[in-house]
Amino acid sequence: MTASPYSAVYPLDAPNPGRATPRVLSIAGSDPSGGAGIQADLKSIAALGGYGMAAITALTAQNTMGVIAVHVPPAQFLRQQLDAISSDITIDAVKIGMLGDATVIDEVRGWIEEVRPAVVVLDPVMVATSGDRLLRESAEKALRSLLPLADLITPNLPELAMLLGEPEATEWESALDQGKRLAAEYGNTVLVKGGHLPGPVCPDALVNTSGMLSRDVIEITGPRVETRNSHGTGCSLSSALATVQARRGDWEVSLQEAKSWLLGALTTSGALEVGQGNGPVHHFHHLQQASKPGAFAATLWKEAGPELESIYGLPFIQGLQSGELPERDFNYYLAQDAIYLNGYSRVLARAGALAPTEEEQLFWAKASQQCLEVESELHRNWLSTREASTATGPVTKSYVDHLLATSASGSYAVVLAAILPCYWLYAEVGRQLHASYVDAGAPADHAYAEWLKTYADEDFAAATRKAINFTDAAAIAGSEMERAAMMDAFIQSCRYETAFFDAPRLFAQPSIGRG
Ligand SMILES: Nc1ncnc2c1ncn2[C@@H]1O[C@H](COP(=O)(O)OP(=O)(O)O)[C@@H](O)[C@H]1O
Ligand SMILES: Cc1ncc(COP(=O)(O)OP(=O)(O)O)c(N)n1
C-alpha cells in the first residue's frame, strides 16, 4: 500500500492541541502583484485553514520580473497597526517577513517582547530572487537582534550565509552545518531550505541543537518541480508553517503539511498564467480540484488502487476464483461476514441519522435494513449447514470498531468515507470474480458457483454508484480538513477490506464446532 499524501500530512491521531482556525498575523511588506509578501501570506494562511491578518511594514512596486521601488512608511505607524490588532484580538501565531529597515525592526522587536505571541516564525527576507534588496544593508545587525525572539527562522541559503557572515553553501550537507551553527547561536529552530540548490530533489530540514525536536535534524525531502513560478515560495511556506503550527503544535507535522501543500501549489502554478517572469504559486490549488464533481471520488479510487491489487493477490480470492479455496476458510469468511454486517448496519443507520437530505436519509436507512436482511440470509441459507465459529475474529472486531468509532465522532462526510470501501471494493472484487467465472463458461461443478452468482447483483452495483456520488458531494461541501479526514477514514477502511479477505487464511481453525 503506498502511503496517501494526505495520511502523512493530516494523521488523524496526530496531536492537535491548538485552535481549529488559528488567528495568524503577517508582519510583512506588500507585493501588489500578489505573489509574495502579505498578499502571499494571507492566501497561504487561508489555504491552510487560518484566519489571516496583516500589518504592513513596507510597500513595494514589483511584479513577476523584479522590484521597481520600495517605500517604508514611518515605523510608528506600523506600531499603531500592531497595537490595534493585539489590543483587540488574540494572536495565535505571527509570521514576520520583509522589514525594510532598522527602525521597523526595532518597533517589531518592542511589540513582540510586549505581546509574546505563542508562535513566531521569522522569514529573514533580505534580497528577492530577482536580486533586489528588500532590507537595507545597514539593518542586518538589527535583524540579528530579532532572531532570539523567533521560534522558527526560515532563511534561504543566501540569507543563512548572510546571518552567519559566511559564504553561501553550495551543498546540502554544508547548508545543514550552517543551520546547526545558526540554531546553536540563537537557541531556536532553523528551517534549512534546499530551494536554491540544483538537483532533482528539494529537501528542507528542521534543525535544533538544544533537544527541542525529536532529533537535531529532521529532514523532509520532496521532488523539485520544473517551473519558473517560484515567486513568493519562501513567504508562502513560512506563513503556512505558522498557521499549521498554531493548530498542530508540532514542527515536524507542520512542515510535512505545509511542504506537501506548497508542492501542489508549485505543480499547478502554470494554470494561473500570471506575469512574464517568475510567476506566483497556486495557493488554492486544492480547493479548486476538490470542487469539481467526481474529482474527490477519483482521488479516493486512485488511493484504493494498491489495496485492490493486494486483494486480487490474496490466496482467499484466488481460491474463490479457482474453486480451490478450503471450505474451512470459506465458512470462516461467511461467519465473520454475518458478524460484520450486523455492526455495519448500525453505522449505515448513523449515516442516515446524519444525512443532510431526505433522499440520502432514506438511502442509508434502507441500506441499514438490507444489511440485516443479508445477515439473516447468510445464517439461513449459507451458515445453517456449515461448521464455523461464531466468535468475532480479530479483523472483524477491529474493522467494526473503526467504523463505530468513526460514526460516533465523525461528520457525515467522514462516516460516508469510512463506509464506502465496503460497497466499492466489494462490488469491484465481486464484479471481477463473477466476470472470470462467466468467462470460464460458468461451470456448474465449480465449488463456489452459487456464491459467485450472488456477485451479479445489479441492485448492489446501483447502490454502490449512489454511495460514491453521495460521498463525492459531501466532500465538495466539506472543508479541506474534512476531506483530509475523509481520505484517512477511507484508506483505513480499504486496509480492513484487504485484511478481512485475508483473515480466513490466518484465523480459520481446522475443526471448530459452531457456537
Ligand atoms: N522548484 C521547486 N520545487 C519544489 N520545491 C521548491 C522549489 N523551489 C523552492 N521550493 C521549496 O519552496 C520553499 C522555499 O524555498 P527557497 O526557494 O529555498 O526559499 P526562498 O523562497 O525564501 O528563496 C522550500 O520548501 C523549498 O523546498
Ligand atoms: C514584499 C515582499 N516580501 C518578500 C519577498 C520575497 O519573497 P520570497 O518568498 O522570499 O521569494 P522571492 O519572491 O524572492 O522568490 C518579496 N519579493 N516581496
From TrEMBL:
SUPFAM superfamilies: Heme oxygenase-like, Ribokinase-like. Residues 315-503 form the Thiaminase-2/PQQC domain. It catalyses: 4-amino-5-hydroxymethyl-2-methylpyrimidine + ATP = 4-amino-2-methyl-5-(phosphooxymethyl)pyrimidine + ADP + H(+); 4-amino-2-methyl-5-(phosphooxymethyl)pyrimidine + ATP = 4-amino-2-methyl-5-(diphosphooxymethyl)pyrimidine + ADP. GO terms for molecular function: ATP binding; hydroxymethylpyrimidine kinase activity; phosphomethylpyrimidine kinase activity. It is an enzyme of class 2 (transferase). Pathway: Cofactor biosynthesis; thiamine diphosphate biosynthesis; 4-amino-2-methyl-5-diphosphomethylpyrimidine from 5-amino-1-(5-phospho-D-ribosyl)imidazole: step 3/3. The keyword Oxidoreductase does not apply. GO terms for biological process: thiamine biosynthetic process; thiamine diphosphate biosynthetic process. GO terms for cellular component: cytosol. Gene3D superfamilies: 3.40.1190.20, Heme oxygenase-like (1.20.910.10). The keyword Ion transport does not apply. CDD domains: HMPP_kinase, TenA_C-like. Residues 31-282 form the Pyridoxamine kinase/Phosphomethylpyrimidine kinase domain. InterPro entries: Haem_Oase-like_multi-hlx, HMP/HMP-P_kinase_dom, PM/HMP-P_kinase-1, Ribokinase-like, Thiaminase-2/PQQC. Its EC number is 2.7.4.7. It comes from the Bacteria. Keywords: ATP-binding, Kinase, Nucleotide-binding, Thiamine biosynthesis, Transferase. PANTHER family: HYDROXYMETHYLPYRIMIDINE_PHOSPHOMETHYLPYRIMIDINE KINASE THI20-RELATED, PHOSPHOMETHYLPYRIMIDINE KINASE. Catalyzes the phosphorylation of hydroxymethylpyrimidine phosphate (HMP-P) to HMP-PP, and of HMP to HMP-P. This is Phosphomethylpyrimidine kinase. It comes from Paenarthrobacter aurescens (strain TC1). The gene is thiD.
